[in-house]
Amino acid sequence: QEKVENKTPLFNESLKKFLNTKDGRLVASLLSDFLQFFNLDFTMAVFQPEINTLNGLESRDAVARELGILETEATKGAPLMLELMKRGRHKDRGSSFA
Amino acid sequence: QEKVENKTPLFNESLKKFLNTKDGRLVASLLSDFLQFFNLDFTMAVFQPEINTLNGLESRDAVARELGILETEATKGAPLMLELMKRGRHKDRGSSFA
Description:
The structure is a homodimer.
Chain A: H1 2-6, H2 10-19, H3 22-37, H4 41-51, H5 60-66, H6 73-76, H7 80-88
């Protein structure tokens, strides 16, 4: 009982800090792009209030621009996170076209 | 009325295809890592059934290994997506330590 009142919403604090950084907002925006891309409407409906970001998130176009991703027919066929992952991964596997 | 029965769950099909690729599963696992990192339990509770992946997703450790990310104190303080984004972004801004 006495513990309850002392319980600080730690996750809110760390998330709030994260979303107050430019990179943090971009990451959350990438996540939002994924949910929108696959029409994960139910997840989106919970994600938005749960992250509770007053300023909203960046659009896909803005994120792509910020990350220097030039959208092509190929990149448009997937969430931006895929493109980012392909870039970031070590190039030790030759066969990841698509 | 007649349209309803013809309505195919397009998003499920495209998501299913995506999750059947190795990269797709990694991307979804990165997203799951983000939700877990920030204890976004409500979003997670909707995300898991909505993506409906029978095989489950990769753990953070597995994703880090797969992407060649060596976890340090710094990387452990954020979702893996942040590390990936830092890697993938063009190096035209010098000041993104953290």
